Amino acid sequence: MVTLYRASDVEHITDLGEIARYPVRGYPALIINGNTVCVGSVPTKENIKTWVRQAQNE
User: Fold this and answer.
1) CA–centroid distance for 54 within its chain
2) DSSP string of 2-53?
3) Which residues, in sequence order, are CB contacts of 26 under 8 Å at separation 6+?
4) How far apart are CA 30 and CA 23, in angstroms?
């Protein structure tokens, strides 16, 4: 997350077996630190920044 100046690992999962391990009922989905934050739409950069900040403050 260069725009946030934070070190982060990002993983793009395309394997259906791996996706099935997550509690989502739609695609695309965004999961941060094991928490589903968005399903069924592509979030804005601002939403992603907000969710990353919130996750790092937990």
Assistant:
1) 12
2) GGGT----------HHHHTTS--SSSSEEEETTEEEEESSPPPHHHHHHHHH
3) 39, 40
4) 11
What is the number of residues in the chain?
58
Q: What is the pTM of this model?
A: 0.75
Q: What is the pLDDT of residues 26-55, one digit of tens each?
A: 889 999 988 899 999 999 999 998 998 898
Q: How remote is the C-alpha of 20 from its chain's centroid?
A: 15
pLDDT band at 57 (very low <50, low <70, confident <90, very high): confident
